[in-house]
Amino acid sequence: MEIGPGSGLLVDLILKNLNLKKVYLIDLPEVIAYCFIYLSYINPEIDISLPNEPHMRQTSLISFYIPNQIDEIGEFNLMCNTASFEEMNKRVLHRVAFDPRNVYKNTDYGRRLYGIVPN
User: Fold this and answer.
1) Around Cβ 4, how many Cβ atoms within 10 Å?
2) Residues in a beta bridge with 62
3) 94-100 long-range CB contacts below 8 Å, 24 or more apart?
4) 71's torsion region: left (phi>0), alpha (psi -120 to 50) or beta?
5) 0.90 cut: is pTM over it?
6) Taken in order 17, 74, 66, 114, is the CA torsion positive or negative?
7) Contact, 7 vs 35, CB < 8 A?
8) Phi and psi at residue 80, in whole multiples of 5°?
9) ∠ Cα 12 92 7 (to 5°)
10) What is the tens place of the pLDDT at every residue in 26-55?
């Protein structure tokens, strides 16, 4: 899971270097459009679901969520944020950072990165 992916550069870098099964991205509605356009253009073969398309989340590699949809995200093991935690309300940040779903899980591939599940 990445909180505040911005333009999507980090997600694209990870997509190019890891064989991924699922990516969760949380951002403000007004910012998601930029990331969606970039990722769709650079990776036209990838299915991407937007916050208003919950019916597509099961089949999409990348799923976007807005902050009030965070409880709809399934289990994840690690999340990242490169620059927007300082903009978040401390109460919300604490809730996200200490989410009980964010727990290390042993898998055949070891620790998952950024809420991204290896195939």
Assistant:
1) 20
2) 23, 48
3) 96/3, 96/70, 99/70
4) alpha
5) no
6) negative
7) yes
8) -135, 160
9) 20
10) 998 999 999 999 999 999 999 999 999 999
